[in-house]
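User: I'm preparing a small set of examples for a lab meeting where we compare how different chains pack in three dimensions. I only have the primary sequence for this one, and I'd like the structure in C-alpha cell form so I can line it up with the others. Please keep the answer compact; I'll paste it straight into my notes.
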Amino acid sequence: MEKNFQDHFGKHAVEYSKSESHKSGSDLKQLMEELSLKGNETCIDMAAGTGFTAAELAKRAKLVYAIDATPEMLNQARKLAEENKLTNIKFILGRVENVPLTDRSADVITCRRAAHHFPDKIEFLKEARRLLKIGGKIGIVDMVRNEEDSEDVRNRFEILRDTSHVYAPKITEWKRYMSIAGFKNINVLETTERYSYERWLYPLKIGGPEDVQIRKFMSSMSDEFLRKGGFDPLEMTFDKKRMIATAQNW
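Assistant: Understood. Below is the C-alpha cell output for the 250-residue chain.
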C-alpha cells in the first residue's frame, strides 16, 4: 500500500498543487473557523500534501510542522510557502503513524483530505494524541461514506480511481475511532459537494485506464446500487460527503 500512495502522489504532485478544490474548498475555511486559532499556537499538519492547509495555519499560528511521506508533495508545499512568504513552516518527511517530534509538541493537529489513505485510523489518532498538549485540539477533514451505504459502494469507486485509497469510514465509525483513541468533546459537521465525473476523476484523465475500469464497473451495476455511493448515473455526477471533525485531548 505504501508503494501505491508514493507512486500516485509522487506522479501527480504538480496536479494536486493546482487543485482549486484543495486550495480553496469551503471545508478549509470551515476547519479554520472550528479551530479558532489565537496566533500563539504550535500546529502539526499531518499528511500535509502540497501544503494548502499548512499555509492557512501558518497565517494564523506561531509555528507549523508540515508532515508528509511523499517528497514530491512536500516540494510543492515548500514552493507554496515561498510564494506566500511564509517562514514559520517546518517541513518533515515522515509517516503520520510515527512522527519524529516529542510528546506534547502541539496545541493543534490537522489532517485534511488524507485519512482515507491511512491503513490504521486508530493508530494515526493515537499518534496525534501523543503529540497534542493536554487540552489541545485535533481537526480532521475527510470524505465519508453514507450511513446507508451497506455495500460499501463509495470505497469501491474510490479504489478504482486511486489504488492508494484504503477506506473512507462512516461518520459513526469516525466517532468510535476517536473515542477509542481517547479524544473527548468530539464534534462533527457534515458537508456535501457536487462533482462532475471529470472533476471527481482529477488528476486522472478521461480515456485513461482508470476511467475505462470505472465505466466498466458502472455499466455492470444497477442505478440503485450506484446511487448508494452518491453517484447519479444519468447526470454523471458525484455527491462527495465530507466530515469536519474536531476533538480535544484530555
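A couple of notes for your slides: The chain has one domain: 2-146+164-194+239-249. DSSP finds eleven helices and eight strands in the chain.

User: Perfect, thanks.
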